[in-house]
Amino acid sequence: SDHMENICGYLMKYTNLVTGWQYRYFVLNNDAGLLEYFVNEQSRHLKPRGTLQLAGAVISPSDEDSHTFTVNAASGEQYKLRATDAKERQHWVSRLQICTQHHTEAIGKNNPPLKSRSFSLASQGSANSPGVQRRPSQNAVSFFNVGHHRLPMGKRLPIMQPDHLVDVREMMSQAEGQQRDLIRSIECLPASGHLSSLDQDLLMLKATSMATMNCLNDCFHILQLQHASQQKGSLPAGTTISWLEPKVSLANHFKNGAAQNFPAEINKPASVREEQSIAEPCQLTREPEEINPDEELEDICDDKEDDLGAVEEQRSVILHLLSQLKLGMDLTRVVLPTFILEKRSLLEMYADFMSHPDLFVAITNGSSPEERMIRFVEYYLTSFHEGRKGAIAKKPYNPIIGETFHCSWRMPKSNVATDAGTDSSAHTLSEQGTLPKELEGQAEPDYYTVKFVAEQVSHHPPVSGFYAECVERNMCVNAHIWTKSKFLGMSIGVTMVGEGVLHLLEHGEEYTFSLPCAYARSILTVPWVELGGKVNINCAKTGYSASINFHTKPFYGGKLHRVTGEVKQNMMNTVVCRVQGEWNSVLEFTYNNGETKYVDLTKLSVTRKRVRPLEKQGPFESRRLWQHVTESLRDGDIDKATEHKRALEERQRNEERLRAETETPWCTKYFLKDGDGWVYHKPLWKTVSAAQTQQTDSN
To answer: Residue 61, preceding bond cis, omega within 30 degrees?
Structure first.
């Protein structure tokens, strides 16, 4: 029923990342149009801890799960709330929406809406008429007449006063209703025939009309914030002007004739999310595990991602998905269809950036700070090509919290570049007397070993930590990366927030570096990847730095995958090396002495990583964790892959809910929080420092 009802009760309220969710006692005051909350029911007679005016507010059930919803006030303030179950959420949402509508209409009674022409949907002939005898995708948009609102000639738009926002809201409500009518009219068409509900032009019309309404809603939200700031002199504390989350769940837009044939990933409840943790922690140890490289075998898996079939076959699904996205929208919480996934986890993708370990180990062999910086730049620029699996832009699995990946590489010492007149095995730790205890007394092998470990240390935000070391060469790299993805129209952009540090312990040098942004372009046709943005590499001790620009392709002309950069001696402000070329093809290094060096990435030898067999991996290790999803994707069984993926997500949700209810923090396994970053629990610089201290004490 639509009657006004005062309700009260306990809800969970999200405060911030530190405090998280807290139980609070909420009261809906219909007479005053207020939503108030108190610490508990006993303090209800005291002053409320917080109050929201519901006039002009937007009440939105969240797509995170079936319990959460948000109350967005006209002032810009937002409450993120969670009920005990879906039924209770529906009760609160319906009562709040009725109260909001009542008080919003009351404000607008003295200001009737502007007159406007109505929006109409009309069929332009029947399926048997000559005008419809055509290829279904041609001029499908002309099947509908879309009227436009116009202002009378000679009249200027009035200055927007707060009361006039009510007019705008009413007009937008009409437009939203008309847009829904448009969607219904399209979905009522037959699934096959001359003009079907799956017509490509009509699907595009659905997507663009939804995107337009979402954009208008965002603009209206910004106008509300501006008026609030004019009334109060400034924006409310903590208010930010940003893109809002979608107000319509994905499931509501897949009801046409062919919806039942779409992968279950799209139709499943939006509460299923990949960012939460796996179940049964009490049965699994979180103690760090020492991986023996001798147990690892050379990887024989070669999953290339060149198959376009799935993308072509599922284009209608992509169009449906695009109808829910908005420019600038954060895609962290969007569950993407299974068929666009790579057959590996993001953690393994980071490992694949180390596929030229000979170039990595050769960095420390440079005879001078200048040469070591140039070698690092060369290794850095050659790492991205092998990190991609094929030319098609696909998305690796989102790691779940606690997921890990281990591997290693072995390369003959003779393959590692050295300085002129320097033996490849020179400067080893054994000669320096700082060999770690576990290697003492062992015969030195004729190869170098680089060990790698990665862990998903956080799910909100999604942060991965990874660490690689070569004990024999006294060097290691530690990094943490937070991936932020956004919808950019016909592209998806991924920003790599974070920092890496390369430690050359033999020289006492640290090289800090960042990562470029990645873009998936042409997501409706043949999706492809390009890198963009400026990254910096710095060594504070030596004063050398590098500035590298990954250039995105201009709209007209220009080359793909272009990169330029320079290595500089900061104290003398001198450029010692310039680099240009393509990061997936040929790079040209020009030195200040006039010499030029070319590196053809397509001809560089790739060292296969070594991975433990699945039966020896722990349940949290990437390949074992995702093995059923990967096998189903290899077999081309998208539905089965989706089911396995959904099972993982259900377990993650349950465990996350349990941790929230018991206020139990997540404990990482290999990485420790260090300020804003994450550091490996047993880095080489600590091991070597301890060994040197022990040797000094014994002397």
So the answer is: no
Q: Do 134 and 96 contact (CB within 8 A), yes or no?
A: no
Burial 224-255 (b: 16+ CB within 10 A, else e): bbebbbeeeeeeeeeeeeebbbbbbebeebbe
Residues 6+ apart with CB under 8 A from 277: 400, 401, 402, 459, 652, 655, 656, 659, 666
Q: Of the candidates 102, 56, 97, 62, which has an alpha carbon nearest to the alpha carbon of residue 81?
A: 62
The residues that bridge with 693 in the sheet, in sequence order, are none
Residue 224 — very low, low, confident or very high, per pLDDT cuts 50/70/90? confident
Name the segment(s) of the chain with CATH classification 2.40.160.120: 298-415+446-622
pLDDT tier, 546 (very low <50, low <70, confident <90, very high otherwise): very high
Strands in 552-643 per DSSP E: 562-569, 574-582, 586-591, 596-600, 610-611
Q: Per residue in 412-444, is it b (16+ CB within 10 Å) or e — as a string?
A: ebeebebeeeeebbebbbeeeebbeeeeeeeee
DSSP string covering 199-228: -HHHHHHHHHHHHHHHHHHHHHHHHHHHHH
**Which percentage of the chain shows pLDDT scores above 70?**
68
Contact 487, 464 (CB under 8 A): no
Contacts of 312 (CB under 8 A, 6+ apart): none
pLDDT at residue 590 greater than cutoff 70: yes
Q: DSSP code of 617?
A: S
Q: Give the pLDDT confidence score for residue 492 in this predicted structure.
A: 77
**Cβ(179)–Cβ(208) below 8 Å:** no
CATH of 298-415+446-622, one of 2.40.160.120, 2.40.50.840, 3.40.50.2300, 3.90.76.10: 2.40.160.120
81, pLDDT greater than 90: yes
C-beta separation of 42 from 56 below 8 A:
no
Regarding beta strands 574-582 and 297-298, do their DSSP bridges make them parallel or antiparallel, or are they unpaired? unpaired
The residues facing 157 across adjacent strands are none
Secondary structure element (H or E) that encloses residue 348, with its range: helix 346-352
Report the first-to-last Cα separation within the chain, whole angstroms: 86
Mean pLDDT of the chain: 75
CB count, 10 Å around CB of 150?
8
The residue-averaged pLDDT of 294-301 equals 84
Alpha carbons 76 and 53: distance in angstroms, whole number: 11
Least confident of 23-32, 361-370, 417-426: 417-426
Distance of CA 442 to the CA centre of its chain: 45
- Cβ-count burial of 90 within 10 angstroms (0-12 exposed, 13-18 middle, 19+ buried)? middle
Question: Are 411 and 361 contacting, i.e. CB atoms less than 8 angstroms apart?
Answer: yes
Mapping DSSP to helix (H, G, I), strand (E, B) and coil, where does residue 556 land? coil
| Residue 361 banded pLDDT, cuts 50, 70, 90 | very high
Would you say 567 and 575 are in contact if contact means Cβ atoms under 8 Å apart? yes
Mean pLDDT for the stretch of residues 39-57? 89
The token duo for 648 is 């993982």
Pick the CATH number of 8-108 from 2.30.29.30, 2.60.60.20, 1.20.272.10, 3.10.20.30: 2.30.29.30
Closest CA to 258 of 184, 316, 182: 316
Residue intervals of the chain classified under CATH 2.30.29.30 are 8-108
pLDDT at 612: 92
Task: Say if residue 363's pLDDT is above 80.
Answer: yes
Alpha-carbon torsion (156, 160, 163, 168), positive or negative: positive
